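Reply to dn_fold:

You asked what the input looked like. This is it:
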Amino acid sequence: MKRLIPLTVMALLIISGCVVSSPQKNQTTHSRPKAAQQERARQAFDELDGRPSTAAPATATMSVPAPIAPPSSATRPSVPTPSEETHLMVNGYGQSRPEAIRRAKAELSNTFQSRIESDISSITRVTTDSAHGSALTKSVRSKIRVASSVDLEGVEVVEVTKKGREYMAVVAIHRARSAEKWRRSLAKITTRIRVEEDAAQASPGKLTTLKHLNNAMALFIERETLISRLRVIGAPVENKGADTFESLVARLQAVKTNFRIAFEARANGQGLTQILAQDLTKAGFFVGGSKNTSDAILRVSLTLAPIKNNNPHFKFVRAVADVSIIDPTSGKIVGHLNESQRGAHLSRDEAGVKAVKKLSGTLSKKIVAYFN
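and this is what came back:
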């Protein structure tokens, strides 16, 4: 009788688990109870055969890999914070973040600019007080201002903070990287200065000699600018700038002494030629003489053309001037300048006069800059 009880239970469990249902809905709904019933039936057979009841093996589950944790701050490579030892740092203040950054960069640029002007100005004092020396000093100081105002490269914004309504920005320039870059540029410029000086020495005429020496002077200013920057960041280099500048000044003055410019008027350029000659004389140049005795020839041509307009009361004229700079030693054109202006007046002739007057002032400055 005891053996029949498990058989009866087993039969009832099997019959109750074999009820047919919908293949989709009931399979999902009764999948777990059916499995439990089958497990109880298996345990009943084990008891009938006298075997100990055992639990079914756990259903295998797919292992899901654990998510990779982001690297902690301790494992991330640390970026060195700029300090006074590694960077030249300057503060700037403003009512907004961009304004504070802009003022900080301007203050850093001013730090270099003031040192450059001070260093080079002390060197240029070796020039004499003669007419050519004064003009040369003025030209050099103008070039110093241009060179010192060049924007710095490699400026970093360290941080921007706000206190109340005011922002404070800290900008910096890396000392070692800047020093390495400027030293490379310094070596190249020094080589170019020697090339220009050698070319000036080998030039047969005064005009080409003057051109090469002017190039050497411009490079000298650029070199002294880099040397001053290196001093500011604490990386000074040996410099004999005063000796180099004194040598360049002496050679330039020797070339400019009695340097004569002759004019050759072409195509209505006679009136303009006279105005240009007066302007160059005021600038310290010797103007006049024949082509054979001059050191430079300026061939000037002028064109006047009416401008059509809808204004019935005024006449407009455009003046266009071309100046060819000729080396009398070789007869070759070594430079070319041009300028155009327009004038307006009740009459066309007076409009042309006004256009030429405006044109001559601008053109004279270009000619003086070419020879300086």
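The CA atoms of residues 294 and 303 lie 26 Å apart.
Hope that clears it up.
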